[in-house]
From TrEMBL:
Annotated organism of origin: Polaromonas eurypsychrophila
Matching Pfam families: XdhC_C (PF13478), XdhC_CoxI (PF02625)
InterPro entries registered for this protein in UniProt: MoCofactor_Util/Proc (IPR052698), XdhC_CoxI (IPR003777), XdhC_Rossmann_dom (IPR027051)
UniProt domain XdhC- CoxI: residue ranges: 15-75
Lineage: Bacteria, Pseudomonadati, Pseudomonadota, Betaproteobacteria, Burkholderiales
Protein name per its UniProtKB record: Cytochrome oxidase I
Domain XdhC Rossmann, residue spans: 176-318
Length: 359
């Protein structure tokens, strides 16, 4: 699955270029609990087709009903409704307890949307083209008439709205580069794809590439360190080594550590991780501060032992780092296993130290 915002904007562009009426809805404010964060977008076509989400589904249903009815009955005599057009408008949902229940919002939840009618196709095409080229873009909407201004952005930013303008920042897809095309990689790539990442898998070993079975991921045969350089990891990228082979993993990880990738990690045990750090310090001259960015053992501690469970563990950690969530230390794999080993050793020592009572 591709980045949701890009998919919404691309679909809306296609509708408008085909001459169809459509609107763009953006979550601009929330109060209490909300099923979708501020900045979330959805597009609605005159025929009722919808892409994206601003709630759990009930608000989408209401928008579809309201606006497809308006499109369908326009000009149909006394029962006709005015086709929505003109400058953007704000609409609130969930203001009362009854509305919150009707629209499926959590108790006390309220959200406000900005509705843009028939956004200009050329501006949408320009925005989508920039996003597909990997640019971070700022989209400003003048609220008096809906005029759109686009500009490159230097950093991600939260949506802002004033009495005059709404500004939303859209970024390119999050990317994941996986070193090694084994079974664990297939599970992790699948999870990353449906989480909205663009996935690239690198493995120069033909026997592994030939067995690859996950559609949607790009599989390349380059040497991993060369591919990391060509991949140019940025703040929306992660690099994960999964081969257990230092000849493939180490140079790729070294290159990744010189980039802005938000997550860099490698599979392996606690001992393998310590050995990797020593090897990279001795042979490649990496200092302690640089190696501190290298995660391992990767994942969160959920007692996982099978490839799919390990993939869940790793994907959970990647998403936590991406979303800026600091995980409790007792969820770190190495710490949890160390503490578990201490407990098990203490228990074993207690059993071994019990004196046998003579019969």
């Amino acid at each position: 699955m591709e980045n949701l915002d890009v998919m919404v904007l691309r679909t809306l562009r296609d509708w408008r270029q085909a001459g169809k009426r459509a609107l763009l809805a953006t979550v601009v404010r929330t109060w209490g609990s909300s099923p979708r964060p501020v900045g979330s977008i959805m597009a609605l076509c005159e025929d009722g087709a919808v892409v994206g989400s601003v709630s759990g589904g009930c608000i989408e249903d209401d928008l579809i009903y309201q606006y497809t009815q308006a499109y369908a009955t326009a000009g149909a005599g006394a029962e006709s409704k005015t086709i929505p057009s003109g400058p953007p408008t704000f609409v609130k949902y969930g203001i009362t307890a009854d509305e919150a229940h009707r629209f499926g919002l959590p108790c006390g939840g309220t959200l406000e949307l900005l509705l843009e009618y028939d956004p200009e196709a050329s501006a949408l095409a320009e925005l989508v083209q920039a996003l597909e080229a990997g640019q971070l873009m700022q989209r400003s909407v003048r609220l008096t008439d809906g005029a759109v201004t686009l500009a490159p952005a230097t950093a991600p930013a939260d949506l802002s709205v004033t009495a005059l303008v709404l500004v939303n920042t859209f970024g390119p897809e999050y990317r994941m580069l996986l070193i090694g095309a084994g079974q664990l990689t297939e599970y992790l790539a699948t999870m990353a794809l449906f989480s909205g990442f663009a996935v690239t898998v690198c493995d120069p070993r033909e026997e592994y590439r030939s067995a690859w079975s996950v559609p949607g991921a790009k599989v390349l045969s380059d040497m991993p360190d060369d591919l990391v350089i060509a991949f140019k990891p940025d703040r929306r990228s992660c690099v994960i080594a999964l081969t257990h082979d230092p000849k493939l993993d180490d140079l790729a990880l070294m290159e990744a550590l010189s980039t802005d990738a938000f997550y860099i990690g490698a599979i392996g045990s606690r001992r393998n991780n310590e050995t990797r750090h020593q090897r990279m310090a001795e042979h490649f001259g990496l200092n302690e501060a640089t190696l501190a960015r290298l995660r391992g053992p990767i994942g969160i501690y959920i007692g996982s032992k099978t490839p799919p469970e390990i993939a869940v563990s790793v994907m959970a950690e990647v998403l936590a780092v991406k979303n800026g969530v600091v995980l409790p230390r007792d969820m770190e794999v190495a710490r949890a296993k160390n503490e578990r080993a201490v407990v098990e050793n203490d228990a074993e020592g207690l059993v071994c130290g019990v004196a046998r009572v003579p019969s």
